[in-house]
Amino acid sequence: MNLPLYRRIADALAEKLDRGEWPAGTRLPAVRQLARQHNVNVLTALQAYRWLEERHRIVARPRSGFYAATPALAVDNDQETSLPSPGAWVHVDDRLTNLLTLSASNIDTQLHMAEADTALYPAAEFARRLQHKLQRDPTLIGTYLPARETALLKGELIRLASSWQLQLPSEHILMTNGTTEAIQLALRALTQPGDVVAVETPVYFGQLQMLENLGLKALEIPCTPEQGLSLEALEFALRHGPPIRCLLVVPNFQNPTGALMPDENKKRLLELARQFHLPVIEDDVFGDLHHEGDRPTPIKAWDREGQVIYCTGFTKSFAPAFRLGWLSGGQHHARIERLKISSSYVTSPLMQATLADCLASGLYARHIERFRQQLCLQTRQLIECVRHSFPKATVISAPKGGMLLWIRGPEGMDSMSLLDQALPCSISFAPGPVFSAEGRFSRYLRLNAGHPWSKDLEQAVRRLGALAAQQCATGR
Hints:
- This protein has 15 helices and 16 strands.
- The protein is of the alpha/beta class and 476 residues long.
- It has 3 domains: 5-75, Arc Repressor Mutant, subunit A (Orthogonal Bundle); 89-119 and 368-474, Aspartate Aminotransferase, domain 1, CATH 3.90.1150; 122-365, Aspartate Aminotransferase, domain 2.
């Protein structure tokens, strides 16, 4: 097999590490020095270092370089990532159409979407409050949201955001039809067709579809379950790649990897954005779904210049079908408000008024605490079942929040073919290639941990693991 150039360089470095030429803690050659030694460009040299870092053979220290790791840290963690190409036109609609149609099918075990089971949401209580709100004020069905209701909702959102260390003025809060519309409005405010947008890879396929529909190019920046977006790769792309119009990033429980970006990396990302005048679109739709500890802080919390367009909502955490989202646009907020008027004009006044009531009454706070605990339990149960059911060389992410598992199969596994085999067994999942504009991650798949554990679910996961083992054994 002909290995790519960066792999040959990485293998040569690994041999030196194995021979003890670089003891633990030794600083390795600078990226530019390594590039000169092998007569390659700096992106290829950095890619070699990143490949070793992902296997914990070396560690990166901010503003210092790469260092040899202790041997105990070296594990098999083959993340199929590469540094960005010059920018790829996105063509994902056909793949996504086929995947999304599974939601309306009669598949018994649907693990392909990033949605929790409907039984986990307080639907009955939400419906009761909605009905009560409509009975008290029937005009909400056909009018704008009254000023008193707008003030109540924004006040509750400001209070909620302040618990995340966000200080937002009420005039910089805009309600949207879900987080998807918030991100679309942000992209429209910042870009023109043909522009390059930096995204994580792997990346949520819905974001790729947005870029395609807006005529934008995706520049894929590696993202790992341990650290999230690679800041080294982003900086090199900003210095040496095509002009990047903006960055779209999910720092808290990224879809599909579940990655939680460390706070120090979030601050460094904001510094890079300031240095290169790079607008940042922050998608924080999973931020409230942390399994333990405190809610992770958004990048927006450290934004003092309004460069970050903060997008979030309640579609994953509270009421998926009602499509309630919101954004805070910083220095771009006024333009986004104008685009909202020319786009969907308003978000349902009735839904907004009901949400305000749910926030003010404490219903959301009570629900989200139970919801987080349940997702944590279900994620652990799913991980345990995958660990015992899939081939031994399978690598499973261990997310600290959200409802997704990112899984890498052994050498020889093809997740698209595996899906074809799973569908006749009434099992669906999201195959890896849909999470890349360039169709990468063929050995990967994403499973939804949003369903309460049951015997049927356990049997389906075991069946999927058996199919994966069979495919790896036979090559088909």
